[in-house]
Structure formats: structure tokens, C-alpha cells
Specification:
Blueprint (H helix, E strand, L loop, with lengths): L1 H27 L2 H7 L1
Amino acid sequence: MIKFRLVLSNKLVTVLLGGTLSGISVFGGDKPASNHVL
């Protein structure tokens, strides 16, 4: 149960870290800006 929680939290962290960068471009419509960062 604890291991499952760790995996879940790790996935959430990666999604938040990677999702915020791509998510801002998707929701904000800043495609050129995100391409510049990447």
C-alpha cells in the first residue's frame, strides 16, 4: 500500500512538473513560447 502511494505521488509530481510546462502552453495557447523552452 505504501509503495503504491509512492508510485502514485511520483507520477503526480512528474505530471505536475512536466504538465505545467506543456499545460501552460496548451491552456494559454503559447505554442511558440513552449517550443522555445523545449
